[in-house]
Amino acid sequence: MKNLVKLGFAVILSATFMTTKAQNTGTENSTLWEVSGNGLTQPSYIAGTCHVMCSKDFEIKSKVMKALEKSDQFVMEINYTDPAEMTAMQKMYQTDKKLSDQLSPAEAKELDKILADYGTDLKKMDHSSSQALYALISMKAIPCPQTDIKMYEIELLKNALKSKKKVSGLEKVEDQMTSINKAYDLKAVIQQLKMGKEYETLLNKMVNAFKKEDVHSLYTLFKDDKMMNAEQEKAMLTDRNKNWAEKMPEMMKKESAFFAVGGAHLMGDNGVIHLLKAKGYTVKPVSSL
């Protein structure tokens, strides 16, 4: 379990801020949604998550735990219990090409200066991937020590494993890394690193909105194109949502499923909720169970 938490933490950190931009839709406020109809013999559930929070802010609402208990299987973005996926996670921060070899001398000097604000330097990070650089943003933005951080999906996973539920993922680590690389090349990551303070403010607002289940605020916080442009949104949200929405029906048909995905994947015209409704399912917010 120790390695599971460590590797899950790495992936969650890399994705925390890349999956926050979405369009507002509907009038309901809930981070838990029930999926029924269209031939399903029993309902399934979708929980929007806030990947990482300080323990003082962390809470899994009772309705979420009850929905998990009622479900036959637990489905995350990535299956952290798959040994092959865990190996892929370990490799995602490694690179054969030095960062400095991908930059001009002036750009390398600038990156070295930027990294000083994150407590490191280019020499120490030179053999890291751009995803490793991006993880620095998340680590700096979270306003508590790493030992005080709670990971929403990991806590749900622990409960699923205790009750011996089947665990699976909506995509592979390789798929997620392809999306990230398509959205954020090295120079784009460097631009993101420059906005460290803005991310700290963003995370605080997101956590507060998530705690209140204020999906409208949660899904409109990150619309500044400096954070994520239309092309990046397509790679990180739209394309992945469509892939997931194609896989979810078969999972729900066999047995009830509890899906846990980043909150921003739920809303908008290309959000998972809208895509499932378009397939004929009834998807409604859950206020209590």
List the helices and strands and how they pair.
Elements: H1 2-15, E1 32-36, E2 44-49, E3 52-54, H2 62-70, E4 73-76, H3 83-91, H4 105-116, H5 122-125, H6 130-141, E5 149-151, H7 152-162, E6 166-169, H8 173-183, H9 186-193, H10 196-211, H11 215-218, H12 230-254, E7 257-262, H13 272-278, E8 282-285
Parallel strand pairs: 2-7, 4-6, 4-7
Antiparallel strand pairs: 1-2, 1-8, 3-5
Helix pairs in contact: 1-6, 6-9, 6-10, 8-12
Task: Write up this protein.
- With 289 residues, the protein is an alpha/beta fold.
- The chain is globular and about 60 Å long.
- It has helices at residues 2-15, 62-70, 83-91, 105-116, 122-125, 130-141, 152-162, 173-183, 186-193, 196-211, 215-218, 230-254, 272-278; strands at residues 32-36, 44-49, 52-54, 73-76, 149-151, 166-169, 257-262, 282-285.
- The protein contains 13 helices and eight strands.
- It has a six-stranded mixed beta sheet with strand order 6-4-7-2-1-8, sandwiched between helices.
- It has a domain at 2-81 and 148-183 and 212-285.
- Residues 1-26 have low confidence and may be disordered.
TL;DR of this structure?
This protein is an alpha/beta fold. The chain contains 13 helices and eight strands.
Distance between the termini: 30 Å
Task: Describe the global form.
Answer: globular
> For the residues shown, what is the average pLDDT?
85
Enumerate the strands of the largest sheet in spatial order, edge to edge or round the barrel: 6-4-7-2-1-8
What structural class do helix, strand and pairing data support?
A: alpha/beta
Largest pleated sheet: 6 strands, mixed
- The share of residues in extended strands comes to 5-15%
* CA gyration radius, whole angstroms: 19 Å
**SS field, number of helical segments:** 13
Q: Percent range for helical residues?
A: 40-55%
Uncertain residue segments: 1-26
- What order do the helices and strands follow? HEEEHEHHHHEHEHHHHHEHE
Number-wise, the strands total 8
